[in-house]
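WARN no homologs supplied; continuing
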Amino acid sequence: MPTDLNTLPRFLLFSLRGNKYPSILEILALFLCSLFLFTWNLDSHEVVGFDSRFYLFAQEMWRDGVSWFPTTYGRPYPDYPASSTFVIYLFTLFFGNMNKLVAVLPTAILAAITLVFTYLIGCLHHKRWGLYAVFLMCFTSVFLKSARAISLDMYPTAISVCCFYLIYSADKKYLPVRIWWVFPLLFISFVFRGPIGLVIPAGVICSYYLLSKEIKKFFLIGSIALIMLLVSTGVLLAIAYQAGGSTFAQDVLRMEVVGRIDNAHLPYYFYFTDSFLSYALAFPLAFCVLLGVIYTVYIAQDNLPQMTFIVKLMGWAMVILIGMSIPGDKKVRYIMPMLPAVALIAAYPFVAPASQKYFAILRKIIISVFSLFPLIFIIGTMAVALYAKKHLLNIEIAYVRIVSLFFVLQTINVLIIAIMQQSNLREIVISGIAVLSFMLVTIHVIEPVQLYFDRARDFVTAIEVLRIQDKAQLVFYKEAPDGLAIKYRINMANIDLPIFINDSVDLVNFSSPAYFITSDSYYDEFSREIAAHFKVAAKGTIGHVPVVVFTKNHSIRP
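OK structure emitted
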């Protein structure tokens, strides 16, 4: 019987052995499986959090038509080009309606492309290297969350990995013509993400040639990229001037360039410390691998060809980490283009020679942890269930089904460890089960919890029914137009424009029938005299913010 179990999946082991380049079928299978997982169950999801802003952009383009910049409340918004919104608009035209699945589909496609090219880069050395890099990327919560959201940072991420593949494969396969394809990719990245979209992949390319000591290519590509950046930025500002005049063009320059540098900032070391948690497991493992590389090269004097590859990957990651640490505006999603490099570095223990004992030990530790993932998620899911029951939270999670599935996966792990003799295949299956478990817990446990605490749709729908019945205006008090109000507006059935009031005197003097909305904290600041003019119509949450809906006394018919 053990012989049968070891011979049954021989085709899988054979396909992952050696340096044979992956077939089109393998690449297509990886792309389609990734796309399925990144879009699984999204059609029923409510749009929450940071996605709300981009969803409003798409809604307004769907209603009002195509424009150079996305709009909010009918006015152009300076922080983003309309390119990504236009892509969502095209998908909306194709599918005939708009929901979260349609809005996320472009990002999910880019995420799947990112996985494919990460795999291809690893396959230039060994298929198993590419496969484990894909596994580690799928383990990364920032990447998985972004792949299942509307994420503009996925554009420079996909472009960066494509550019690295082109220049690295050009050297490995002696196909120098591939290098010239990076320039249209840089332009596309600018079109979708602005200046930062061009700077990041250009930095990756330049770091590669600098580390390769190809100074001529370094200066040539760097100079062309700089010219492209200046010309493209000039064109962007000219379009902004045409769309909204000089004031809007200045806003675009401030939001896209100056504001990112001069903004109140976190410490320069923020990305180096925060990445350990935000980009786990890949980032901590990559750090451990680099310690081993330093020992292997400088102490053991074992300078294998793979070490040169890892150094170039390290250059890719470091140019993004250091470069993005300079601007004051810092968010963990900004450095996502470094993740493919970090995942490839972290995957090295799975292809390291047996003579390198440090990596062999590291590999065994990783597989041991992977084999326990289903059990860990059983405990985590049960903890969520107990918490929800204790606090009377009606979170839509099929606890019994999920726990049962994790139990089956853990049982399979135990059987594989006990029966399967081929260590490489055993490790691949265990790692694959760990990835599947992580995705299941993310999609069916973590996401429902986040949606529960960020929900707004049911509350907004109920308020809108009352407001429309009373023919009242919608007024936000002390709320920013691009904050809580956006989360409310994406759930409105009509296109009524809200009114924004920041002064309590203007609020008291507002004479038309209206439903006023504000955060609990602002409502509690009302003096007794001001509060006497109003009555509370409802209380609830928009996103995670508790809000009060109130009306003028006698302004709305009972």
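The chain has three domains: 2-366, 371-452, 457-552.
OK
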